[in-house]
User: Fold Secreted protein from Streptomyces corynorhini.
Amino acid sequence: MFRRTFWFTAGAAAGVWATAKVHRKLKQLTPESLAAQAANKAIDAGHKVREFAVDVRSGMVRREAELGEALGLEAAADPALPAPRRLVAVEHPRTTYPYNSHNRNEDH
Assistant:
């Protein structure tokens, strides 16, 4: 008699445990829960990408400083040398010609 009671109790406990586990999984698979999980993963990925970009930028600045020291670019400019040239923006070719308002690719 004691054996039957033990196995009945063990089976009932296993059933309750399995039912609770299935209900938890079903809640995790609802559309709202899946959307929240995806949003959290996207936020985490964004933070990781930002940390990576910050690390790359700081490494780039450090390496540029090392190269500047090695090449002597950090020294003051020699007054005997001419000033560096400034870049001039080049006009876009379309602005030099009259604009054609009739575009064949537009839907009319």
